[in-house]
Amino acid sequence: MIVALCGGVGGAKLTFGLYRTLPPDTLCVVVNTADDLAFCGLHISPDLDTVTYTLAGVAGGEAGWGLEGDTHGALDMLGRYGVPVWFRVGDRDLATHLYRTDRLRRGDTLTAVTASLAAALGVRARILPMTDQRVATRLLVGDDWIDFQEYFVHRLHSVPVEAIRYDGIEDACPAPSVLPDIQRAEAVVIVNSNPLLSIMPILSVNGVRDALAATGAPRVAVSPMVASGAVSGPAGDLMRLVELPPTAMGVAALYAGLIDGMIIDARDEEQIPAIRGLGVEVLCTDALMRDERDRVRLATEVLRFAHSLR
Ligand code: FO1
Predict the structure, then answer these.
(1) Nearest alpha carbon to residue 308 among 281, 272, 269
(2) Can you tell me whether residue 177 is helix, strand or coil?
(3) Under a CB-based contact definition with an 8 Å cutoff, are residues 7 and 199 in contact?
(4) How far apart (Å, rounded) are the C-alpha atoms in residues 163 and 140?
(5) pLDDT at 192 (0 to 100)
(6) Model's pTM, two decimal places?
(7) Is the CB of residue 199 below 6 angstroms from any atom belonging to ligand 1?
(8) How far is residue 250 CA from its own chain's centroid?
(9) d(CA 304, ligand 1 centre) in Å
(10) Closest CA to 129 of 20, 7, 236, 16
């Protein structure tokens, strides 16, 4: 069993590569749920859906979220009723949120619903929410704490953020098989997701950091920073909140004590000595994923590197 810790679109690409490289039922993906939101009474879990759709091969084209070729008829009608529709939920995607919300209201857990959705879409990897409880990332913008999707989608992550918090994290227990899966993993891969928005919420769930620190399995992280900046999104900018540089070295420092190895891009080669100085081994390669071949190539290199650290 290989365990991957993952957020949304960027991380899902490498996770797809892992899924294609490994026997499918030997991959377990622990997914950030601190981006979850309520929309018209529906429970939306964007990162869980992005990972599930990506592994199922039905994810939304260029953008990477939602379903490929989806339409927005329902959203357009909601707009006519005066509902804010900046969060673009597609018609077929809506079915996922209806199904999830109905099951949750009947008392099922997010873990159970996620497993049903994945199975229905033919995904054989185990996809786990980080927790079955509600955790919500909130960001301090000016004098206001705003919701994650308000920041990320509505304000296009272009406003200055003063602080981040994960509401509910103190009481969040890991979803039932998260800790056992980390404990029996052959290797743990922290994929190239946004460190503060996607990975830190997972690491902050009670017991996850301790389980990672205690496992004897090799633990590797793939840097989302290439050439001293994030490949996409606000990851680089947010690193200043933890007083770390927006570089592979900064991410290695953030994960220090929890990783044995780091995969960085060849353009960041000069950072190798500093990262090794943290006690973290380095694999330097082409860390950009332009297409499906790149995803599989990088995943293969990541797994080979992890095994070399055993
Ligand atoms: N991201 C956007 O940038 N704009 C959207 O309108 C949007 C809608 C959306 C609907 C369903 C879903 O599962 C994801 C969606 N996302 C959208 C992606 C999502 O907000 C972010 O990628 C993640 O939360 C960050 O990991």
Answers:
(1) 281
(2) coil
(3) yes
(4) 5
(5) 96
(6) 0.97
(7) no
(8) 18
(9) 32
(10) 7
Q: Which two tokens stand for residue 173?
A: 């227990």
Residue 257 identity: G
Each residue's pLDDT tens digit, 147-189: 999 999 999 999 999 999 999 999 999 999 999 999 999 999 9
Question: How far is the first Cα of the chain from the last one, in angstroms, to the nearest whole number?
Answer: 14
CB atoms within 10 A of CB 120: 12
Q: What are phi and psi of 114, to 5 degrees?
A: -60, -40
Q: Are 111 and 127 in contact (CB under 8 A)?
A: no
Residue range 90-100, pLDDT digits in tens: 999 999 999 99
Q: Is the CB of 265 under 6 A from ligand 1?
A: no
Classify residue 66 as left (phi > 0), alpha (psi -120 to 50) or beta: left
Q: Whose CA is nearest to atom 12 of ligand 1?
A: 46
Atom of ligand 1 nearest to the CA of 149: 20
**For atom 13 of ligand 1, which residue has the closest CA?**
46
Q: What is the pLDDT of residue 23?
A: 96
Cα separation, 309 vs 178, whole angstroms: 23
Could you report the per-residue pLDDT of 267-308, keeping only the tens digit for each? Answer: 999 999 999 999 999 999 999 999 999 999 999 999 999 999
CA distances from 149 to 38, 221, 256 (A): 10, 26, 29
Whole-number Å distance between alpha carbons of 261 and 17: 19
d(Cα 295, Cα 297) in Å, to the nearest integer?
6
Burial class (CB in 10 A: 0-12, 13-18, 19+), 284: middle
Sequence length of the chain is 310
Nearest atom (ligand 1) to Cα of 8: 26
pLDDT score of 78 more than 90: yes
The residues that bridge with 37 in the sheet, in sequence order, are 44
- CA-based R_g, the chain, Å: 18
| Tokens encoding 156 | 């296009």
Residue nearest to atom 18 of ligand 1 (CA): 65
